[in-house]
Amino acid sequence: LAGMVDLGEERDRLQKEIDQKTKFLEGIRRKLQNENFVSRAPAEVVEKERQKAKDTQAEVEKLNATLADLG
Predict the structure, then answer these.
(1) How confident is the model at residue 3 (pLDDT cuts 50, 70, 90)?
(2) 24-36 mean pLDDT
(3) Please, are residues 48 and 31 in contact by the beta-carbon 8 Å criterion?
(4) pLDDT at 44 over 90
């Protein structure tokens, strides 16, 4: 992999993706912390947002692990 991909560019790309997903995750969490949203939205919508948060958190963790592996 090191010979085929510029590691600096790959680190930058991964960090940019981590930053984007983290920002997205923060938005979902703010929505889920909003009592009006949680109390008024249909249960399936709230659950879908919770699942989105869980999935996005897993993606961020995976990207962070990949970034750490690159050194």
Answers:
(1) low
(2) 98
(3) no
(4) yes
pLDDT for position 22: 99
Query: Is position 52 within any domain?
Result: yes
Q: What is the CATH number of the domain that holds 16?
A: 1.10.287
**35 found inside a domain:** yes
Residue 65 lies in a domain: yes
Number of structural domains, the chain?
Answer: 1
Query: Is the CA virtual torsion 10, 13, 16, 18 positive or negative?
Result: negative
Q: At a CB cut-off of 8 Å and minimum separation 6, what does 56 contact?
A: 21, 24, 25, 28
pTM for the predicted model, two decimal places: 0.86
21 class by beta-carbon count within 10 Å (0-12 exposed, 13-18 middle, 19+ buried)? middle
